[in-house]
Write a structure and sequence with these properties.
The protein is of the alpha/beta class and 460 residues long. The protein has helices spanning 5-11, 16-23, 26-35, 62-65, 74-86, 98-108, 124-139, 156-160, 165-168, 186-193, 218-228, 281-287, 305-320, 323-344, 368-380, 387-397, 421-438, 444-459, and strands at 41-45, 48-51, 56-59, 115-121, 143-147, 178-181, 198-203, 232-236, 260-263, 275-280, 348-354, 357-362, 399-400, 402-403, 410-413. The protein is built from 18 helices and 15 strands. The protein is globular, with a radius of gyration of 23 Å. 44% of the residues are buried.
């Protein structure tokens, strides 16, 4: 009997939310139903999602940064198709396949000159896990520093060095000897390093939770301190890497050279999970220093040919279509259009970005009348105001965005790197319209706010 997956999907059309409610995460279903995000998407094309009614949604979330090339990129699809047709001898394990070598070579060509080795895994969190092991073994030290409010993944090692408290609660105890320091506070970092017993400092060049940028000169001082105390620097570029910020690596904006670099998300082309650690030669060779340690760390599916193929195809598209430059240009256009809105509208406090990683932060307004509405929302649940922006953007204008973290009024924009001025204009016009509505209190949008308050009170 033949198996036709497309026929199977067609037979079950429209059962998405029932199946998830019954067999997967029922709480996610409740969230999506509550905020009206419960759409039935059936296709993805470029910067757009298309639902079963044919309605198109501008995707400024891009799968948390996975779809840097947009959805269904023909070059990536062809690479996958060609590899499947080739019937390569995948995952022999006791061999050295060609594709991992090719992708390693291509990635290392983009890295600083001191970075000479590459390790492949299946995800960003696996890349961070590998980096934790590498730095501890190579230095002989156990202490690891990370930043408050950081996010490095949800497996136990990566969660142990993540500062986002909402993900940590209830999962203690974590790995020992992991210590948080405030992001951007060079004095706190120096104090933590001074005993000379820290293996590594893990950091996101731009923090994903809140889109927090470092103070000017911070990372240069970080590098100087880490070199002084023989502490390794690990750049988590899982979300910021591969052109997202208008540079291939985000750390390039500050002229530093980390010792290890973690990659994932965009490298997948949106199809096959992949993670990678780029690493200095001397660190790598300490971990894999004898023949009996050749397999001391690995990942069963890490070098699978489909993942290697999409990685190579992604790098090709980034270069061929000049998408890193496009990210810088479109980011500049968005900033030029969005920054004046912070002066015009009381609720919008700040617009901050590098390339196409943009944070829109909201604050309590000066107007007494508007402050009533703000206080109503924030008393019920901190960070609730942001939903007054994201939900109308989605329901009225079919633009998908995300709040940048729990208990904060920051919206994060992560559009695909392929967007044009048309998508920039579409977003800016819609955003200003929703923002203007928020400044009309009372009004229709605040009626929705009252509904959010009631739901928040029920949860508490």
């Amino acid at each position: 009997m033949s198996f036709d997956i497309l026929k199977e999907i067609a037979k079950r059309r429209g059962e998405n939310y029932r199946l998830h409610k019954e067999y997967l995460n029922a709480q996610l279903v409740r969230v999506l139903n509550t905020i009206g995000y419960d759409r039935f998407y059936e296709r993805g094309e470029g910067a757009y999602l298309i639902d079963r009614h044919g309605d198109r949604y501008l995707d400024f979330l891009s799968g948390f940064g996975v779809f840097a090339l947009g959805r269904s990129h023909p070059v990536v699809k062809k690479a996958l198709s060609d590899i499947l047709e080739a019937d390569l001898p995948a995952l022999v394990q006791l061999d050295c396949a060609l594709l991992p070598g090719m992708l390693g070579e291509a990635l290392l060509a983009k890295a600083p000159p001191s970075i000479k080795r590459c390790f492949f895994a299946n995800s960003g969190t696996e890349a961070i896990e590998a980096a934790i092991k590498f730095v501890r073994y190579a230095t002989g030290r156990s202490r690891i520093l990370y930043c408050d409010n950081s996010y490095h993944g949800l497996s136990y090692g990566s969660l142990s060095i993540s500062g986002a408290k909402e993900f940590r609660q209830g999962f203690e105890p974590f790995l020992p000897d992991c210590e948080a320091v405030p992001f951007g506070d060079i004095d706190a970092l120096k104090k933590a390093l001074v005993n000379g017993d820290v293996a590594a400092f893990f950091f996101e060049p731009i923090q994903g939770k809140g889109v927090n940028l470092p103070p000017e000169g911070y990372f240069r001082e970080v590098q100087q301190l880490c070199r002084q105390y023989d502490t390794l620097m690990v750049a988590d570029e899982v979300q910021t890497g591969l052109g997202r910020t208008g540079k291939f690596f985000a750390f390039e904006h500050w002229g530093i050279e980390p010792d290890l670099i973690a990659l994932a998300k965009a490298l997948s082309g949106g199809y096959i999970p992949i993670g990678a650690v780029l690493c200095r030669e001397d660190i790598f060779s300490k971990v894999f220093h004898r023949m009996d340690r050749a397999l001391v760390h690995g990942s069963t599916f890490g070098k699978n040919p489909l993942a290697m193929a999409v990685g190579l195809a992604t790098l090709h598209v980034l270069e061929e279509e000049k998408l890193v430059k496009n990210a810088a240009n479109m980011g500049d256009l968005l900033m030029a259009a969005l920054q004046p809105l912070a002066e015009k509208y009381d609720f919008l406090y700040e617009v901050r970005s590098k390339g196409l990683m943009i944070g829109l932060e909201f604050r309590s307004p000066r107007s007494l009348k508007l402050k009533i509405g703000w206080t109503m929302l924030e008393t019920a649940q901190k960070g609730l105001f942001s939903q007054l922006i994201t939900v109308p953007l989605f329901q009225r204008y079919r633009i998908l965005t995300q709040v940048a973290g729990n208990n904060m009024n920051v919206i994060k924009l992560l559009p695909p790197l392929i967007i044009t001025q048309q998508e920039v204009n579409t977003f800016v016009n819609a955003f200003e319209d929703v923002l203007a509505d928020c400044h009309r209190y009372p009004g229709t949008i605040w009626d929705f706010g009252s509904t959010l308050v009631k739901q928040a009170m029920k949860k508490s």
